[in-house]
Amino acid sequence: MMTRWQLLICLFFVAQLAFAQAQPRDYAISSPRVSFADDGTTAVVSFAVSNQGGDAIDASQVIIAEYQSGRVEVSEHLPALAAGQERDFSLRLPLAGWATEGIISFKIEAGIDQYELAGSQIARNNLQLFNIDLGAARAGSGDPPGTASAPPPAPAYDLYIPIVNLGLNFNADGIELNQRFITSREIFIGFGLFIAALFCLWLLSLVLRLIFRRPPTFDTWRPPYAVNTWYDPNSAMGRRQSWQFHAQNSIISAPQAPDQVTVIKRLTDSRGGGAGDWQATALRTEQYDIYGRISRSEVIMPRSIIRQLNTLARRASSMDSRELTKAAAAIAKRLAKQTLSGIEKQNLMLPIALDMRFEGEADLARVHFELYQYRDDAWHIIDSWEPELGQIGARIPEQFTFALNGQLPGESRREFIARLQEDFAQLLMGIYQQTQAHPPASAESPEGQPADADPITDSSLRIGDLLDSDDETDKT
User: Fold this and answer.
1) Measured over all CA atoms, what is the biggest interatomic distance in the chain, rounded to whole angstroms?
2) Which whole-number Å values give the CA distances from 158 to 171, 176, 183, 255, 382, in the listed order?
3) Helical H segments across 297-412, by residue range
4) Strands 278-289 and 174-177, bridge-based pairing
5) Higher confidence at residue 8 or residue 473?
6) CA proximity to 32, closest of 22, 19, 45
7) 3-state secondary structure at position 171
C-alpha cells in the first residue's frame, strides 16, 4: 500500500503528464490479416496502428495474446506516434506448440497503458480479435481462414469517472474496480490499513510538535526581585521588599479613601524616562470571577499585535498627544476584537484581566516602585525606590496585570465594545506616556518627619496596616 507521500508524488507526475498532453492520444488498430509461412507452423499477422488523437508522449507495446488464458505470445515495441501518424506491423506468431486441429482465438492490444486504461471507453479501438483454424493452416490451403472479429463491447460500470478512467461495479460481496474484483474482506483490510496509517501519521505529527514546538507564551510568572531575609521587617528596606510583590501595574486604581495606601511600579529607561527600552513579549486576556481565572476565555494575542506595541514603545517619546492617541487606539481596537473572540455571549458581564509580559536589557531598563497615600483629596507619594534583583541574566522580566470591567448593566454590546476599546487605549497611553514621580524634596517629609527619617515610619503607616489595606493583589 502506497503511503500518502508516494500517492501525492504519483498524482503530481500524472498531473504533469496530463497537462503536457492537452489532447489525449487515441490509438486504434485496423482489422488484422493473417497468412501462413513455414509449412503452416508460423502465422504472419499484419495490421496497422494509427493515432486518432493528440501527440503521444511515451512509447508503448503491441501484444498478441491467447484470448482465453491471456498468455502473451508476441510482444513488439510501439514508438510514440504523432497525431494522425500510422505504423504498419507484420508480426510472426509461432503455431508449433499448439494442437494440430481446432480454432484458437487471439487478441491484439496496442497502447493499453496509463493513458488508455483497459476497459475504458477510449481504449475500445485498441483491441482486435482474430481466429486461426489450425487444421486449415496445417493443410496448407493458401490463405487460412484467419478472420478478424469486432472487439468485445466495452464493459458497463455502475460508476464511471472518465477523467481518471475509473470504473466501479458494486456487488453484494465486493466491488469491481476496472474489471478487477475486490472482495469485502480486502476492502475492510485496506480500510483498516488506511486508518492505521492515519493514526501513525498523527502520532508522528504529535512527536514532531513535541520536539520542535516553541516554549509556552505564558509560563508561570516569577518576579525577578531578590528576597533578602536579613532585613528587619520594620525597616524601610524590609517594608519596601514586602510592598514590591503587591504592585500590579503603573496605574493607581485603589479607592480614594482617607489614608488609603497603594503601590505601583513603572518601567523606565536608565535615565528615568519612558518605557522605550522595554520590549513587550506576550499579551493575554482572560475573564475571572470570585473563584479565579476562567481558562476557557484565555486569548493569547498574536505576534503582529506585539510588534505593533513595540513599535509604539520606540516612537512614543517622539509623538505628540494626538499621534500617541491615534496609535494606541489602533492597537486597542485589535486587542478588543481578539479579547471578545474568546468570550461567550452569556459571560460578557464578567471582568477581564489583561496580562502584559515585558523584557528589558539589564544595563538600560529600570523598574521603579512608588508608594502612595490618599489624603487632602489627592494621592501623595510617600516613598520611591528601585528593587534589588535576583539572578536574572542579561534581561529583566516584568509583568503588568490590569483589570477591566465587563459589560455593565444597561450597556448594549455595541457600547460595550466601544468602551472596551477606549479602556485598552487608556491603559496603553498610561504605560507609554508616564512620567516618573519622586518623593517631595523638602526639608521635611509630608508627615513632618526629618528628611533623613524613614518616610513610612509614621504610626498611621505601620507595615501590617499597609499590607492589610492593599486590595490590588492578583486573584489567581
Assistant:
1) 141
2) 10, 10, 17, 79, 89
3) 303-315, 321-341
4) unpaired
5) 8
6) 45
7) strand
* Residue 160 grid cell: 464511471
Tell me how far CA of residue 282 lies from CA of 245, 275, 303, 314, 400, in angstroms.
Answer: 21, 16, 8, 17, 11
CA distances from 247 to 45, 85, 224 (A): 100, 89, 13
Residue with cell 481558562: 295
pTM: 0.50
Name the amino acid, one letter, at 239: R
Number of residues that make up the chain: 476
Within 10 Å of residue 146's Cβ, how many Cβ atoms? 22
Give the span between the Cα atoms of 330 and 311, in whole angstroms.
Answer: 12
Is the pLDDT at 455 greater than 50, yes or no?
no
Give the separation between CA 378 and CA 381, rounded to whole angstroms.
Answer: 10
Sheet with 103-110: list strands edge to edge.
72-78, 60-66, 103-110, 127-133, 147-149
With contact defined as beta carbons under 8 Å apart, do 353 and 218 qualify?
no
Looking at the DSSP assignment, which residues form a beta bridge with residue 360? Answer: 278, 396
CA distances to 344, 352, 476 from 285, rounded to whole Å, are 14, 7, 13
Q: Which helix (H) or strand (E) holds 292?
A: strand 292-293
| Helical axes 413-432 vs 321-341, angle rounded to 10° | 130
Coil, helix or strand at residue 54: coil
Q: 312 near 357, Cβ under 8 Å?
A: no
Check if the beta carbon of residue 201 is closer than 8 Å to that of residue 7: no
What is the per-residue pLDDT across 255-304, written as a single tens digit (0 to 9) for each?
999 999 999 999 888 776 777 788 899 999 999 999 999 989 999 998 89
Task: Measure the CA–CA gap between 59 and 70, rounded to whole angstroms.
Answer: 22
Q: Which helix (DSSP H) or strand (DSSP E) does residue 274 occupy?
A: none
Instruction: State the number of CA atoms in the 13 A half-sphere of 30 facing the CB.
Output: 14
Q: Residue 1 is which amino acid?
A: M
- The string over 15-44, giving b where at least 16 C-beta atoms fall within 10 Å of a residue's C-beta and e elsewhere, is eeeeeebeeebbbbbbebebebeeebeebe
Classify residue 398 as exposed, middle or buried by CB count within 10 Å of its CB (0-12, 13-18, 19+): buried
Q: Cα-flanking dihedrals φ and ψ of residue 35, to 5°?
A: -135, 170
| DSSP helix, strand, coil percent of the chain (3-state; round to 5) | 30, 30, 40
DSSP state of 173: T
